[in-house]
Amino acid sequence: MTEAEARREFAAEVVRRLRRAGHEALWAGGCVRDIILGGEPADYDVATDARPEAVMEMLPFPSIPVGIAFGVVRVRHPRIRGIEVEIATFRSDEAYVDGRRPKGVIFSTPELDAARRDFTINGLFMDPETGRVIDHVGGLADLRGGLLRAIGDPAERFREDKLRLLRAVRFAARFDLHVEPATLAAIRSMASEVLTVSPERIAQELRKMLVHPSRDRAMDLALDVGLIGVIFPPLAEMRGLFQGKPVQPEGDLWDHAMLVLRLLGPRPSFPLAFAAFVHDVGKPSTRSRHHGRTSFHSHDLAGAKIAERFCRLLRLSNAERERITWLVAYHQYLGEAKKLRESKLKRILAEPGIDELLALHRADALASTGITEQVDYCVYYLEHQPSGPINPAPLLTGHDLARLGLEPGPGFKSILDTVREAQLEGRVQNKREATEWVEHFRATGRWPAVWHADALDDAVSPPVDGAGRQS
């Protein structure tokens, strides 16, 4: 039995046990929607008339009272780790007071339970034993008609939980649905209120959108309804900034970003997808014209600063923030990889995030010129390492310099960096040569221009001061 089959069977077993105990029980919400659309639900929810205390007492499965005041209990598969079913008592909600949760619930009926949900496609129930769909809100007709429609008054649904503004975008993009006109109008009129949602919840929705193959459709819709302009104002400025890229001669900067997102492949990581989304966000603020030509000098560095602000705004983890800003800062670095010095190429190819940087470079190249020659060269270099290992162990350390009699200080880093560069370029082959080179520098105050030990007395470059700086 596959994990998906085990998950489905466990959800069916929960329903069977509740029914044997005399209760009404049905699959509810997103799992029903996914089954109707021919997909495999990632998880299952069960709705029942049993109260949460009774659920925990009658089911012989490990249970977690995740929201018992709201009638919600989660049960775990007794043998397979990671398989859980959320069970909620049929309910209607009291008034929402914080734009997220009702102040209380009233246990009720399937009809009222469906009416409290967000969108008609999420308000369906299913009998897992017969496959019969129970529809109190018109969700089946909307699925067949390709519509995303809020249940009841759209403005009221969005006032209850402002995150639904983003969820509407995600569902419409993921399932390729048109947003029903009244629902669309409510999203546009209330877009500014999304900022009342916590940054962590906004980030969670963006994460779900950006890692999914529909990511570019989701971002296009989010821009169209005004959510991007509210959450990330600098990104909205990319619309209307035309570049004349060979691949999109009539497209603007936003169109380019969407094409890069689309070209990432089916399942990029969130840091890669977010970096691709914002990689050119520095262009509007760095745009200038000289002699009739438009340039965006240092837009990569400007973009990295803006990306870091976005990451802090969303309260992403340090690891994600650092990876995203690094990807944005270096998204052009390998554009002329074949011309890079060997040491610079090896250093960047040795970075932990190089696979994602190459994926971003490839998507950007395909969306700009359609030519991936530079990225292909980097991939070849990584696979074949024509000039030796990409990231060999350093030949010298600070301890080695101290043993040679050098005073610890700021000059250490300069010396070690220079030796490392020579090592990566193959001009210093081993520790003996590196040590003799440092001893030559210490004795003469000059850097050797020829790096092998048997040529240390030949051509030299300008003298340096005691800290390792050229004078």
TrEMBL record:
Belongs to the tRNA nucleotidyltransferase/poly(A) polymerase family. Keywords: Magnesium, Metal-binding, Nucleotide-binding, Nucleotidyltransferase, RNA-binding, Transferase, tRNA processing. One of its GO terms (molecular function) is tRNA binding. Its cofactor is Mg(2+). The keyword Nucleotide-binding applies. Coiled coil: none annotated. The keyword RNA-binding applies. One of its GO terms (biological process) is tRNA processing. It is an enzyme of class 2 (transferase). Gene3D superfamilies: Beta Polymerase, domain 2, cca-adding enzyme, domain 2. Residues 253-381 form the HD domain. This is tRNA nucleotidyltransferase/poly(A) polymerase. It comes from the Bacteria. Its EC number is 2.7.7.72.
